[in-house]
Amino acid sequence: MAMKFAIPTEELQFRATRSGGPGGQHVNTSSTRVEVRWSVAMSPSLTDRQRERLLRRLGSRIDRNGVLRVVAAARRSQYQNRQAALERLQEIVEGALTEPKPRKQTTVSRAARRARLEAKRRRAATKRDRRQVDPDD
After folding, report:
1. Is residue 5 within 8 Å of 97, Cβ to Cβ?
2. Per-residue confidence (pLDDT) for residue 1, from 0 to 100
3. For the chain, which residues score pLDDT lower than 50?
4. Contact 41, 66 (CB under 8 A)
5. DSSP codes joined into one string, the chain
């Protein structure tokens, strides 16, 4: 189950820039691309354990200053891109904070072991039957 973690809006920094790619005059004049930055290293809303887990699990996405950056530029309006960036940031953080369930060690059933060994015997017999026959025998 995913752990719900709310990132306080005061800790987020937003920056709007011009989107790249096709789109004609609208793209060239409006700043619809949104970048959201959140300092994982300096966030007061994280416990030390959460901070350590985020830094470990999101190491490739966090810069050397401990800032997680998410960009959204797919939508046509700044508002929609801002919402998309916030949703993506939330998903990334919740995913990283979710602890995996501990693995329950199981044993292979007797029937499965027997079936595996029987399949090996059949395969060995098939290969044995394909060998050239020695004329001396």
Report:
1. yes
2. 44
3. 1-2
4. yes
5. -PPP-PPPGGGEEEEEE---SS-THHHHH---EEEEEEETTT-TTS-HHHHHHHHHHTTTTB-TTSEEEEEE-SSSSHHHHHHHHHHHHHHHHHHHHPPPPPPPP----HHHHHHHHHHHHHHHHHHHHHSPPPTT-
Tell me the CATH number for domain 9-97.
Answer: 3.30.160.20
Question: Which bin fits 129, alpha (ψ -120 to 50), beta or left (φ > 0)?
Answer: alpha
- Amino acid (1-letter code) at residue 119: A
Q: Which two tokens stand for residue 103?
A: 């693995």
